[in-house]
Amino acid sequence: MNRPVPKRMKKNREKMSSKQRNILAVVTMAWIFDAFDYLMLTYIAVDIMKEFNVTAAVFGTVTSVTVLARLIGGALVGVIADKWGRRIPLITSMIWYGIFQLISGFSPTFTLLYVFRFLFGLGMGSMYSVGVPLLMETVPRNKRGLASGLLEIGFPAGGILAGLLYVGIYSSGSWREMFYIAAIPPIILGIYTLVTLKESKKWIRQQSAQHSLEKIPLINLFIGKQLWNTVHSILVNAGFLVLFYSISLWYPTFLRIEHHFTVPMVSAVTILLNASAVLGSILFGNLSDKIGRRWTITLSALGSMLGAPLFVLLDNNLLLYIGAIIVGFFGPGGVWSINATYTAEHFPLSMRSTGHGLTYNAGNFFGGMLTPVIIGLLSTQYGFGAVMTFGVLSSAAFLILMAWLWKETKDMDMSI
Description:
- The chain is mainly α.
- It has one domain (18-196, 215-403): MFS general substrate transporter like domains (Growth Hormone, Chain: A).
- The chain contains 18 helices and no strands.
- Helix 11 (226-248) runs parallel beside helix 17 and helix 11 (226-248) packs antiparallel against helix 18 (384-403).
- The chain is globular, with a radius of gyration of 21 Å.
- 56% of the residues are buried.
- One of its GO terms (cellular component) is plasma membrane.
- GO terms for molecular function: carboxylic acid transmembrane transporter activity.
């Protein structure tokens, strides 16, 4: 006699539908194109500094002002998305940052580049704040880690695209053309999303169940039991971002200045790092659905710490390449693979977009706004390699601590 399959077993076998895969593809592509532009600055930093006659520390503040804009855009649009839906804010954010990618290439002065990067950051923060909750509310719970890992290939994949563009069309003084090309894909993707994407069903059900207006979600983040969830999410995202910026932001500049790499060599080693990160993100994201978020962070952070000395300090090109593979696999790959689902799992449905947008970008404000400037300042005394290595080691250790101060959430119900 055939026995009925228990509900728990059915749930574990649940697969993504075509609509769910489309949402995963849209949000991932949006993140790739976002990163494509953002990481181009790491390749063309030297020439922008030369053209506008600014120091590394001053140039680092371009990233800082973008991070500040991401905090503002992410928090405000997160509130809008929780009140009026995920779809329109997501579409608007993609077209918005595509437009300001284009305009950035026309910057006649360093001050105007500041302004345009601030406006770009508003759209960048909005996209991630809305796109991640939409994705995590859509995919089956047993696929959230994998979906997060696939989504988080966005930044290393964007870095690979930037590296290919850099080696393909770059020559001295042509940094502006890189912005022009980067502007096209997100605008096209925004139009495609307008046609194909529908509103989150879980958000619609939650809205229809409400009979009165609640407190502003932004305030609810800091009330009662939710307070520690919010604070922890900010702290862990700060750790994520310090790790990321310590690895990625100044790496091409480090290779050109301290190792005297040519343009093709810089492109090759950074593409290698990002390709390793893509693989790590997929593998660790899938693994997190089995062993949980806590152990995924712990193992990948330890791997980052072990590879950090090889990553930059040794004056040996072969070991430098090996270090790039190791750190890419465990850092922007493993550690970052669960950022999307881990942050979203801190918040209930009614404030998820607000909470994700605020805490991710607040963490980015502390981790991403200060780290580029600090590395730029300290590099003049200690060199990029030593400062970047310290950033990786300290942030990885901090993330392990934060992981064990938080509950395991891999089986959390995202419909409430």
